[in-house]
Amino acid sequence: MMRKKKRSSTTLDEDSTLDSLKSKKSRISGKASKTPVQSSNKDSVFVQFLKESGVSLTSGSTANEIAVDQVIFQKRLQQHLRKNPRFPDIIQEFISSFEVYIEEPERFRNCLLPCVPSSTSQHNNKLIINQLKWLDRIVDGKDLSTKLLQMVSVAPVEIQRDIITSLPEILEDSQHGDMAKELNLLLSTPLCSVLLQQKTQLTVPVLDALSSLNLSSSLLSEVREAVMGTLSAVQLEDLPVVVKFILHSISGSDADAVVCDLRKKLELEQCVLPAVLQASQSRTKSKSSSGVPACNSGQDSVALILDVIKSAIRFQKTISEAWLKAIEKIDESEDHKVVDLLVLFILHSTNANHSRRGAERVLKVKVRMGLIQENLLQKTFKGHAQVMRGHFPSILALAQGLLRSPDCCVVPFGGHMYKLAFTSFDSYCQQEVVGSLVTHACSGVSGEVDVALELLCELGILDYMDNLTSQQIRRLFHLLSRLAFGQEQHGGHVQDDMHIVIRKQLSSTVPKYKRIGIIGAVMMVGSMGASGNKPTGSQDGTLTKETNRQVMALLELVRSCSETSPEAAALYYDEMANLLQTCKLDPVVQAWIGKSVLEDFQEDFVVDLGPNISGTFVFSASVLYNLDEDESQGGIAINLLPLMAQEKQLKTDSQAAAAKTDRRVSPLCLSPFFRLLRLCEEVQHQGDLEEIDALLGCPLVLTDMEVVEKVVNAFCKQNDPEMKMKVVTRIQNITYLQNLLQTCLAGYLPPQANFDGENTDGMLSSSSIVPPKKGKKESSGRKRKASASKNSSGDKSLEEAAEAEESQQEPLEKDIEKEKEKDVKPVVSLSSYWPFFRELDVDVLRVLQCGLLSRTLLDTEMHSRLREEVQLGPAELLFLLEDMWRKLDFSLAAAPAKKAPFLKSKIDRALGFAHLQQKSAKDIATCCTELLPTLCTHLENCHNHFQALASENQGVVDVLNVDVKEQQLMSSAYQFLLQVLHTTFSWAGFSISEHRALLKRALGVLAGRLKEEETELTLDQLSRHAFEYLQNFRSTVPCLSTALCLTQLLIVLSQYGGTNHRSYREQIASLAKHFLSQEWVTVSGEKERGNKYNETLQALLGIYLEHTDDVLKAVEEIAGEGVPELINAAKDASSHSWPTLNRQTFLVYYKSMMAELERAARKIPPSKPTDKQEVQSEKLLTWNLAVRDFHILINLVKIFDSRPVLTVCLKYGRLFLESFLKLGMPLLDYSFKKHKEDVQGLLKTFQLSTRQLHHMCGHSKIRQDTGLTNHVPALKKSLEQFVYRVKAMLTLNNCQGAFWLGNLKNRDLKDSDSDERNNGQEEVEESEESD
């Protein structure tokens, strides 16, 4: 008590002295004294708050004193200000008091000087500790460390911190280990709840001290484990220091385990939760904590943690790889955390390319597998938006990559990243997001543009359309018109702008802009004339009179602007038809459109059928394809030929065409106009086409395949048997016309058939439109072969094999073929002309349900009298299947986004699928699932057909009673059926959970063909039954390409098989081997050959080697057994055990075996010194087999020494040698002493191969073939590395004497000396002497 009084009196004396000094200073300065101000300064808010916060204001020339750390002072001052009852007015009072206080220059100068520590007892303690640092001589360092630790156990927390942080500067190096153990005990010893707060407060000083101590790796690992144990109890603001210590103490060997453990214990989600969840930490710092909200402090701590992780990743490659591995190991979506996404963003933001690519790869894989989902991304943005703002460039780049991905499973995730970045970040980021989406929308890639436009529906409006496709323009105008003419009607200015833009584009003479105007106008009609609730003032419909007037006026405007151009008019009809399919219009508008369309079509294209056709034509006119023979007189016909003559006259008479301003009727508009008419009738009469059913059977004046296709489109959904029969007959007409076109299209560019894109110029290659020249084929072939013999660097391997095959033909056969060519018209492939045909609707595929009609069921007049069931022939079946496969390939197959080659026009993949684009991929997949029973029936019919044919002819194909054309049609239909199934089940959408029911339904159809199950089967069981069902078709596949389709289909089905992957792999390998062991012949009995056959064979051989259990054994079986059979066989003969292996296909086999051998060598696990002896022996045996296979393949070059074989050998030989150096030589280092003879045998075998590779390098230089010599430098380098690596292995095992170098002579492939004798290669010889 006496001490307290004495201290209080002393304080009063000091205050009075301070007042007297202040008064003296005031008088000395010559300024008038302000007594009220001085008296108020003593008790002012500024002085009082500073004193309570730990700063004592001094007088005179001495600096102000501070009794606490600067950070603590700032927190205390903030707390006093915020907790004051007059907050926030107290802040202005504090500032005013501060201004009054610094009016005196002396005080102002003192405030500008840095504060000095106060002379308190705590400061004295620091001074004592500072005296112990850097002592020149310590008598008993151990005793000193013991005393310091004893002081730590009893001193206050502030002094404990000072002592612990000063330990590295006090102790000698020899005491570091013992002190580290004591500090580790301080961290790891379990404490009671009372001391838990003290323990967590000392975590940061202890880590600072441990970071400065010199520790062994084992002790450092032990300390790190102890620190990891305190991670859950450490205070939030200390967490960055703890994470920094853990990451900085990682070594390369334990990086994976430590990072994985750190990721498990690092819960960033709790850092942004309310402070209630961290009450234990909040209570302990209630006096020193500031008034800043807990969420802001949590965000700051998370930001510091991420900075620590970013620093560690940037400067330590092992840590970045460890984070990637830790995230990759997670196989459940529930186990992924916010920290995973944040770390991926950090990895992407680093400058290292491997980290950036690794982050992109891991994110795509995780999103594709459904492990990182949108809810986790949303949680990350919601809780850590402030932290993620610093990684915005990486977020934007990752979103761009996901949106541009050809994988449809990851595109929605990229779109979600864009939306969250737009809604979570500031205006600058929002502008960048919109700019990036505009870039996507103008990229020209279909899927990317569609998703970008959908996102822009929520985020912004595009203001230019020059680079958009027709489908994208439809989406854009649909968005604009929905905003302008929505129910709320708040877009008046948008309506005016749209009317102005559309009128301007419709009046343009540039087809591109007129096309945009037509599409935009039709989209506006769809929004303005959409059926809705019936308003007041309307008549029979749901629209007002004014709206009806505007809609009809707009339609009249489009019609008048497009009637002078057939292409524009056809586009207008197509767009109106698309609108009727996708939009329900007002009844009044619909009735007006239907009436005008019916009247115009009858006036333009329908004529009464009479006995004679009047007019002057280029060739004689006739009426064709009349199905209503009973109404030949008094009926109607499509007036095609007169319109074509009129169109030709307009084109030839340029002056008349220029002066022509009236409405122009063109045959180009017939098919689009008929489609519009059909849809109008369907909408008005609920699908009944009775009003226009006469068009199904009416004849054509001349004929047009597009018109016939539109008729099939129109009436394919009718259920009447008579109409079905007519539809099938029309399909027969189409197939007949296609056969005619194959002989008539040579050298002809057809007119445009699809009008929603650019013109079709340049879509056909010159070989497709120019007829081949006769009489020069043989000479051009000789010229090509002569140039190849002169310089073969530009040849392709498969082409050279085909040329070698052609060179074996006899001259007599060539003369016979030459005579035949004079009488045969050139035949073109219609595949390159598909953009010039009109598109069949998806509903036409229902005709497949009519069944298959084989030739044996036809009578002598080739007509079917069975009208109860309508059936298809092989040609019609093939026509429908090919069209179906094209549709599936466009809608379901993920096409990679490829840029057009330089100086070559890019052909739009969507050309010819304008109607199909109106349907989603799910709709197409559902349609295919509904047709699966019919497809299976056709597949079984094809199987039965070839099975019956084989049984009747005892397996012989080239018999006289086989119809070659029918066999070709059936074989093609077989292949297209399998391709349709393969494309359907390969749809990436089946991997999404919402489409899993559709997948089970599709698999159930295949499984039900095998046996019907009453109980519901699992996905695994369904895939197994479907696999077994399709395996039954292996015995009747007619050609190798069909066999490949079946194998690929089974591979796709095996991916849905769950846990039976090994069984599936065995069956697929067995099936592929069965096909490879079969001799394939064409319908005419000749062996299959050619480039396409070689490509198919290479794919099938790759599947076999990829799925077989033992690749090395399979390669040895082919190279060691099959190839020797070929060597000893005749020139045109094949291998007995592998009939597909002959001299023409040897290159295919050789390349596949070399590639798979090199891939298998890379998959051999790397060796470690800690491996058990059994593991080392197994790996050594594997490398022995691989080296033996490699030696066999290398030696084959001596026999098959063609240039393509040499190229393959040099390329894959170097890759195999590099894999051996990287993975095989470490194994030999560890195994040499225990398995000396095995290692020596392996090296001697491998030495023979490297010697042969050296000879190949010399041969390449002698030939001066640039295609071969390009591989020589890298191969030479690897050969030299092999020499010195073997020397290092022998040195490591104390066998230096068993190694000697010598000059290896350069030889060619025939083992003869070359002229290059000074360019030698060292050779390795290992003796069998003991150590």
From TrEMBL:
Residues 1-38, 760-820, 1309-1331 are annotated as: Disordered. InterPro entries: ARM-type_fold, FANCD2. GO terms for cellular component: condensed chromosome; nucleus. One of its GO terms (biological process) is mitotic intra-S DNA damage checkpoint signaling. Residues 811-820, 1309-1320 have a biased composition (Basic and acidic residues). Transmembrane segments: none annotated. Residues 1322-1331 have a biased composition (Acidic residues). Keywords: Isopeptide bond, Nucleus, Ubl conjugation. PANTHER family: FANCONI ANEMIA GROUP D2 PROTEIN. This is FA complementation group D2.
